Amino acid sequence: MYKSLIFALATCCATGALAQTLTVAPHLASNMVVQRDQPIELRGTARAGERVSASFGGTTREATAASDGGWRLSLPAQPGGRSGDVSIRTASGGSVTLSNVVAGDVWLCSGQSNMDLTVASSANPERTAREAAGTPIRVMKVRRTAVASARTEIDPEIPWSIASPENVGQISAACWHMARELVAKGVEVPIGLIHASWGGTTIEDWMPPAALRSAGTDAAALTALADYGRDPDGALARMIEATDAWAARNDAGSKGDAPWAAATLDMADWKPFRAPGHWERSGIRELAALDGVMWFRRTLDLSAAQATGEAKIRLGRIDERDRVWINGKPVGATLIASALREYAVPAGVLKTGVNTIAVRVIDEAGGGGFGGPDAVFDLTTGDGARVPLAGDWSYRIGSRDSEWSEAPPFVPWAAPRGLAMAWNGMIAPLQGVRLKGVAWYQGESNTSRASAYAGLLRAWRTAWRTHFGDAKLPMLVVQLPGYGPMAVRPVDAPWAGLREAQRVVALEDATTGLVVTIDQGVPSDIHPAHKDVVGARMGREALRVAYGNAMAEAPQPIGVRRIASGVAIAFSHAERGLLVYGAADPVGFELCDEKGQCRFARARLAGEAVTIATDDLPVAEIRYGWQGSPVVNLFARSGLPVTPFRIAVP
Fold first, then answer.
1. Element (H, E) at 495
2. Domains plus CATH for the chain?
């Protein structure tokens, strides 16, 4: 429906034989919000050499279509609230009208699953949707698109639309609640939200190759990505070959000629498994947290008619890489978890009687195994019969990731968890769009490499500011909430390390705001459903960094000094003192020595500072909230929690 609407918008007012020679880019549509007080960039296609004019707000500008038909022009900036139609015409009579365009503030909301979580999937979806009616908010959603080379145009999943109970359910809940907070706190111009997010993505998915290169990304991986863009079949074949060679070095079942794929095999050491299904969620204890190489096998009886001719096997989605054999002969391999597996089985592979299917799965993250569903888990034989494959299989662990001598070859065109793929398909095409700011909620998929995140985040920020033409473009970084098991002793938690990277990078830049959400997490749920508080905090931080309003900030450590009894930490944004909830003293503090050995410590609140007794033991560093799911009870009087941190003791 939406694609039809876009086509109609682009052609409804065209005339004569030239009806389809004038087009506008798909991010330009009726009901769109253009950034107030900034030039309005328009582009599209027309006949080569044709003059194109555009009018809005009483002004007109012209351009000439290039030899490839592309045209681009800039209309003067408009004040907030100015609305009307954008009329685009060619000298030969073609025309396109974008109706009900308004100047306001445009926010781009991006990141991974917690930004991608929609209103419909969040807490109180019906009430939130009802409250959309009549708000001065408009929305556009970019369809998930991953490509190896930068595209020129987006694919709108929802084109620019006035927010309503009917469409807001598919918009980012965090982004939506941010916009509601902006309106509630007095922003008196229409708000435009661009939702361009993708669950499971890493920050590298959202960075252009040049930014990745500046951040130290492996040059060979960037070369492989470029090769895939030029020759996908050749690059894919080389990567499958490299993966097979890696498996031969790191997996017991792949040694030599992959003996566990053989047509006949002693199955005494194999155990039952119900497929499709992810092994980490199977209830099998030894598989509960297993990343590694897993093998699956099953047999099926076929008649002579079924065994004749070509066949097709479907195995749904597999997390993450697979190689499939039938009767010991390889029939297919895929490297990306999001792809549906469908492999042609050549004539002569199947046989009358017992046939054996073997599947090797390499899993580095996620649940591991078969995502299903049952409907695409089957074998279609030469006579057209569908043989279901869901049900009883056998499994055997080939190797655990802790046993690997090296990581599997990196697949840079994976989506998610590749390089530049989401940037190429969803952000690069927005070039020319002027923004009020960017809201960024991402990091969960980078926690295993938290030490590299600060450099990546800096490079990402610079690249996006350059792309959108504003060196001081306001950026909101949502710090990760609590997630994961609660610890009974100090641990060097990866989630804590990534939060620290977010804190440090945000603190470096006056127009980067940190949205602290450590108190909004759920230890057992990586996707907390209540996004209203998160969105409200995003809105308030946006008011501070993008609108210049005096707003409360989460307290941060600004200094440590040694005192007679131990150490004292001073905090910013604690002018009226800090508060401790639920206990006499703040919890979650750790003291660490020079060797990195840490211990929990008793802390006491002293107005705007916290003191910690060292008990005459060595201390080189203080950590606070340094767990996946820390218990925190130290807050500012504004209601904002003290951000987790680490700080050296002089």
1. helix 494-507
2. 242-403 (2.60.120.260), 557-648 (no CATH)
DSSP annotation of 257 reads: T
Euclidean distance between the first and the last CA atom of the chain, given in angstroms as a whole number: 63
Phi, psi of 353 (to 5 degrees): 100, -140
Q: In the structure, what pLDDT confidence band is assigned to residue 87 with cuts at 50, 70 and 90?
A: very high
Torsion of CA 247, 331, 265, 370, to 10 degrees: 70
Q: Report how far residue 404's alpha carbon sits from residue 406's, in angstroms, rounded to the nearest whole number.
A: 5
Residue 11: the pLDDT is 40
Geometric angle at alpha carbon 188, from 552 and 549, rounded to 5°: 20
Q: Is 86 exposed, middle or buried (0-12, 13-18, 19+ CB in 10 A)?
A: buried
Name which of 43-47, 362-366, 468-472 the model is least confident about: 362-366
Amino acid at 630: P
pTM attached to this predicted model: 0.92
DSSP state of 203: G
Helix (H) or strand (E) holding 533: helix 532-545
- Contact residues for 330 (Cβ-Cβ < 8 A; gap 6+): 261, 323, 324
Query: 338, exposed or middle or buried, with CB in 10 Å at 0-12, 13-18, 19+?
Result: middle
The residues pairing with 325 across neighbouring beta strands, listed in sequence order, are 330, 358
Q: For residues 365-379, give the mean pLDDT.
A: 94
What type of residue is 291? D
Instruction: Say how far apart CA 120 and CA 127 lie, in whole Å.
Output: 10
3-class DSSP assignment, residue 449: helix
Relative to beta strand 191-197, strand 137-142 is parallel
Distance of CA 124 to the CA centre of its chain: 23
